[in-house]
Amino acid sequence: xxxxxxxxxxxxxxxxxxxxxxxxxxxxxxxxxxxxxxxxxxxxxxxxxxxxxxxxxxxxxxxxxxxxxxxxxxxxxxxxxxxxxxxxxxxxxxxxxxxxxxxxxxxxxxxxxxxxxxxxxxxxxxxxxxxxxxxxxxxxxxxxxxxxxxxxx
Length: 153
Hints:
Layout: H1 12-31, H2 45-69, H3 73-92, H4 107-147
């Protein structure tokens, strides 16, 4: 069974990733948003980078909750790999996939891009640590099963 309420354990890496996802989702909307609309309602290119970052933050948040609910270690490791791919994509959104303002003092360059980089590096490292933990738990489980002596009557 994928979800087993009796075996539901929340590890430190899962809590850290959930907290980082919540902070990133809140931050991209309020603490480190992209530049405001230009003069006469003109939409700057960084606006679209901010919209994609908001969408990506929701995906990361939802997937972090799903990751906590799932109890199978192999599925958790697979979810971690998918989340790393999302973090890498999100890392490259501002300035690479979607261009930002030209001036370095603009909020999108000095604030949004900086915090996005920090969050995505930290979240990727948390996920890598989580993969190591889940893979080692699967290996330990299999090695214990291989070492057991089966007695038949």
